[in-house]
């Protein structure tokens, strides 16, 4: 993990620097409680209570911090994140209240990806709280989010299919789960689309289906699926150089799936979990699958390849077919699937697709409650005709350029069993610019929304 696990600690009255949270509207009244010297000091720092401002106030031989927030009575995950980023290392507590939801952002603000170079930043900044239950939940969620960040930030050479398998094995060992991995000739027979997409990769990055199972079979079955394209050249429909720069993040769906599985197992949620990661590298070689090829799928549907750069939906199709065979109560999948979703919603908002309105409403509400907003897009059945093929049951792409994210979701829908409750997140898994508590780089977008919904449903 790229940050310490003890950034949140129980408040037992130990020495700590107080943090006062004030709004711009309330700053003038609050400042009246300060001395003239203290007010002058804040004025010199141009502090007026605006959001994310940080001030330092001398107090005799000591000092305290002040942070600008929208409303001290209604904190968000990010209200204290800037403080966690810029204050000196040490121990802090919120004055006149508890951090509440800000416990999460306090941790994520201190995330550093230090695998390849030493972290030169200050730290740690420890925050005290008396709310043990909220602290435990915030620590677990931040740890899961930082797992996503670590996996996505790691370059493809060090985060190929074998490395994703190692992550699954590590989680299984931590939580008493089982892992089954299908490779080689068996993969070709049982998951032909996964094999076809990944067969051109070097032997060290050979394709595989990773299946983690955990929990009591008597509990409702929950399937979590994540797109594990460790690197995407586009295949023979090769991407331009600029399009490959971020393709180490194309396994962001797998990162989300593994992180969500860790939350499910770590909390002891009463479900029978199946986590599936089809892991491949979409490489170029003489044996790469081609435009115009027709692939057979695990479900039996034949798929004409309109574009080899629409590979994520192919491997997900085989994984969703396997998940459906267990007749789960719910399937949720995560994938960095379409640029169309980013054009429509930008980097912050994952596109959400569901078959059931009540499932969408639950996920939207959980996203709002956990400062992890998502946006629903339609599974508009009329667009399915755009995937028709003259030689196969379906094409993997359409040619008119409309509704790309919805059409991709409609392709996936073909592989989910009839009547099964299913949600699909088309997520970016990357933050192109830093915000307080949300550093640039790999990002967990949709993770807390899904986790909040699962807790409400199965907790």
TrEMBL record:
<dbReference type="GO" id="GO:0070006">
    <property type="term" value="F:metalloaminopeptidase activity"/>
</dbReference>
<dbReference type="InterPro" id="IPR011356">
    <property type="entry name" value="Leucine_aapep/pepB"/>
</dbReference>
<dbReference type="InterPro" id="IPR043472">
    <property type="entry name" value="Macro_dom-like"/>
</dbReference>
<dbReference type="GO" id="GO:0006508">
    <property type="term" value="P:proteolysis"/>
</dbReference>
<dbReference type="InterPro" id="IPR048816">
    <property type="entry name" value="Peptidase_M17_N_1"/>
</dbReference>
<keyword id="KW-0378">Hydrolase</keyword>
<dbReference type="InterPro" id="IPR000819">
    <property type="entry name" value="Peptidase_M17_C"/>
</dbReference>
<dbReference type="GO" id="GO:0005737">
    <property type="term" value="C:cytoplasm"/>
</dbReference>
<keyword id="KW-0645">Protease</keyword>
<protein>
    <submittedName>
        <fullName>Leucyl aminopeptidase family protein</fullName>
    </submittedName>
</protein>
<comment type="similarity">
    <text>Belongs to the peptidase M17 family.</text>
</comment>
<feature type="domain" description="Cytosol aminopeptidase">
    <location>
        <begin position="307"/>
        <end position="314"/>
    </location>
</feature>
<keyword id="KW-0464">Manganese</keyword>
<dbReference type="Pfam" id="PF21337">
    <property type="entry name" value="Peptidase_M17_N_1"/>
</dbReference>
<dbReference type="GO" id="GO:0030145">
    <property type="term" value="F:manganese ion binding"/>
</dbReference>
<dbReference type="Pfam" id="PF00883">
    <property type="entry name" value="Peptidase_M17"/>
</dbReference>
<keyword id="KW-0031">Aminopeptidase</keyword>
């Amino acid at each position: 993990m790229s940050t310490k696990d003890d950034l949140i600690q129980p408040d037992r009255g130990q020495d700590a620097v107080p943090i006062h949270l004030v709004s711009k509207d309330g700053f003038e009244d609050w400042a009246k409680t300060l001395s003239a010297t203290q007010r002058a000091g804040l004025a010199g720092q141009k502090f007026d209570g605006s959001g994310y401002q940080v001030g330092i106030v001398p107090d005799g031989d000591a000092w305290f911090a002040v942070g600008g927030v929208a409303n001290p009575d209604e904190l968000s995950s990010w209200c204290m994140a800037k403080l966690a980023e810029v204050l000196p290392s040490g121990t802090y507590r919120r004055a006149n209240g508890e951090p509440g939801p800000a416990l999460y952002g306090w941790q994520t603000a201190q995330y550093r990806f230090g695998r390849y170079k030493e972290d030169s930043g200050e730290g740690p900044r420890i925050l005290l709280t008396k709310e043990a239950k909220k602290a435990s939940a915030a620590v677990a969620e931040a740890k899961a989010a930082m797992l996503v960040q670590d996996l996505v930030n790691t370059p493809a050479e060090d985060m190929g299919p074998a490395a994703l398998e190692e992550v699954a094995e590590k989680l299984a060992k931590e939580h008493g789960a089982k892992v089954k991995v299908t490779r080689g000739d068996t993969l070709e027979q049982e998951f032909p689309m996964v094999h076809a997409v990944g067969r051109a990769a070097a032997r060290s990055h050979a394709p595989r289906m990773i299946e983690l199972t955990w929990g009591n079979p008597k509990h409702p079955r929950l399937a979590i699926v994540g797109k594990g394209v460790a690197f995407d050249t586009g295949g023979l429909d090769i991407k331009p150089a600029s399009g490959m720069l971020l393709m180490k993040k194309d396994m962001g769906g797998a990162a989300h799936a593994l992180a969500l599985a860790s939350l499910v197992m770590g909390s002891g949620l009463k479900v029978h979990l199946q986590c599936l990661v089809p892991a491949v590298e979409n490489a170029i070689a003489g044996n790469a699958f081609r435009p115009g090829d027709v692939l057979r799928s695990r479900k039996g549907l034949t798929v004409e390849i309109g574009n080899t750069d629409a590979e994520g939906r192919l491997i997900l199709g085989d994984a969703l077919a396997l998940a459906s065979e267990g007749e789960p109560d719910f399937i949720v999948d995560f994938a960095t699937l379409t640029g169309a979703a980013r054009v429509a919603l930008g980097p912050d908002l994952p596109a959400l697709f569901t078959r059931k309105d009540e499932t969408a409403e639950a996920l939207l509400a959980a996203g709002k409650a956990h400062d992890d907003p998502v946006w629903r897009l339609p599974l508009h059945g009329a667009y399915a005709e755009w995937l028709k093929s003259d030689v196969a049951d379906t094409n993997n792409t359409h040619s008119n350029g409309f509704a790309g994210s919805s059409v991709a979701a409609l392709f996936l829908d073909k592989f989910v069993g009839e009547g099964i409750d299913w949600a699909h997140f088309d997520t970016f898994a990357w933050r192109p610019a830093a915000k307080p508590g949300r550093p640039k780089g790999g990002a967990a977008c949709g993770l807390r929304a899904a986790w909040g919904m699962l807790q409400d449903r199965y907790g």
